[in-house]
Amino acid sequence: LGQIRFYLEERRRLARLGLPTEQEALANELDVDGLQGWGRLYDRISSELRIPVMEHGEIVQKSPGQVTWDGPERTVRENNFRAADRAWRSIADTCADALNHIAGSRLTRYGRLPVHDHLDLPLALARMSRETLQTMWDTIAAQKTFLLPYLEAKARWLGVPRLAWFDLSAPIPAGDPRQRQDRVPYEQACRIIIDTFSLFSEELGTFAERALREGWVEAENRPGKRQGGFCAGFPMHRQSRIFMTYTDSLESLSVLAHELGHAYHGHVLRDLPVFLQQYPMNLAETASTFAEAVVGDVLLQQTTDPARRLQWLDKRLADAVSFLMNIHCRFLFEDEFYRRRRERELTAAELDDLMLAAQKTAYCNALCEDGWNPRFWASKLHFYITEIPFYNFPYTFGFLLSCGLCQIARRSPEGFAEAYRAFLCRTGRAMTEQVVKESFGYDLREPHFWNLALDRIRPWVDEFLQLSGGGPAPTYGSSDDSRKPPGTGAGAGAEADGTSPK
Asked: Beta strands 239-243 and 51-55: pairing type?
């Protein structure tokens, strides 16, 4: 019982955020046709939505998942984006009903619980404090202007004054297209991952080799298969299974590394009591994005061709924009929406206005005037997930925490692989702040760690500007690299094995 004390105490804390037993049972039954019913309605109408797009001179009807704006032709990107926006606008009123009632169901429950506001439960599930979340967002808001020169340089590269929403994922053309090396077959991706994981730690490489050799990954690219990827753990069998669609691309290589990072997380916890193998989403996303970074850092280091490096840097910076700006706009929108929803339901037009304001704040007004996406609130599935409230911020947390860990590994490589393993083992038995403090000595309630994490991204901007002819990036509030965190938790000052990601 002493060993699983944290789990028992957490169950008590979460129980206090529940209703009395009979009321809780009634609320759960009502949720089937209430909260969850509205989520199922959104799933149905979004899956039935069809978007008319032009292909080979003919209009074809496609589902939202089939229509993208990440191709090389700007006219195609814009036409796809505009067509999708018109389609979402056609069902916006129904989407607004679903979103209003999902939030309303939660707020009705919260009104009968001992909570301060709509963030108490998401923070409890993430095992983190409001102070940590606020510090993270405040630091991002104060520092992320260093990404603006990248967005400006990419706009020049694409030949436009300012980027639009549909330009953010546009590829950077590199080299002779007849000699492109972007195709990465599955077998080659497996070898790359095993080799790069092994450079970080022998255990991580050996684990990946076993998972791939024994068929833990279902990666076949076949018709009718759901997009995306996920990793499911099976603690009793001490194994995991990964589902994804591999498309012989660098993006698929990153997804495979990402999901194997989740699987490794479960692997290092396999000998602990099952109650201590349960970790929050924000720490889960740290393990996966760190594994992705291990592979990405080595591949970038090995890429000497300037055009290829520019492509890699663009991918990394586009990811940073997603985590620091896109997800920030989702949080700003959702936070303000829940505040206003306490008073009344909001119309689709009002939700458009809220989203537009959140995007302009989160993206520092960097996009062109007619290039925003006001109906992002309708098209983004994450807002309608009924199982987990405020589903978005754990992704930014995991991304920045993994960036900070890479910085620690770069500064003090000796012993870092062992410290990282110990960190993963702690993720199921303590609050998030305590896990990081004990593992690496940093206090997540202070801005220093978040500045350290953001400093990992700055050199990518510098090099992107240099390779694209834009010159070095200006400095916007760079953190002091010489400062050290107070305390010397396990692993602090002795953190990696000399072959960690650079």
From this structure: unpaired
Q: Please give the Cα distance from 211 to 179 (Å, whole number).
A: 33
DSSP result, 118-180: TTHHHHHHHT--HHHHHHHHHHHHHHGGGGHHHHHHHHHHHT-SS--GGGTTPPPP-S-GGG-
Cβ neighbours, 10 Å, residue 306: 14
Whether pLDDT at 315 is above 50: yes
At residue 222, the pLDDT reads 79
Q: Are strands 239-243 and 58-62 parallel, antiparallel or unpaired?
A: unpaired
Rounded Cα distance between 426 and 39, Å, is 34
Q: Report the first-to-last Cα separation within the chain, whole angstroms.
A: 42
- Any idea what DSSP says for residue 305? -
User: What is the Cα gyration radius of the chain?
Assistant: 23
Q: What angle do CA 488, 394, 88 make, to 5 degrees?
A: 160
Which residues neighbour 370 within 8 Å (Cβ) at sequence distance 6 or greater?
A: 164
Give pLDDT tens digits for 100-136.
999 999 999 999 999 999 999 999 999 999 999 999 9
DSSP H helices in 303-446: 306-321, 327-341, 348-362, 376-379, 393-411, 416-426, 432-440
The whole-angstrom separation of Cα 76 and Cα 327 is 25
Q: Are 317 and 460 in contact (CB under 8 A)?
A: yes
> Per the structure block, which two tokens stand in for 232?
């499911």
Overall average pLDDT of the 280-295 stretch: 95
Residue closest to 71 by CA, chosen among 167, 151, 159, 150: 167
Percent helix, strand and coil across the chain, each rounded to 5?
60, 5, 35
The pLDDT tens digits for 431-448 are: 999 999 999 999 999 999
pLDDT one-digit tens code per residue, 143-168: 999 999 999 999 999 999 999 999 99
Stretch 227-251: mean pLDDT: 89
Give residues with Cβ within 8 angstroms of 211, minimum separation 6: 217, 240, 242, 260, 263
Among 341, 317, 323, 331, smallest CA distance to 382 is for 331
Q: What are 254's two structure tokens?
A: 């990153």
Burial class (CB in 10 A: 0-12, 13-18, 19+), 415: middle
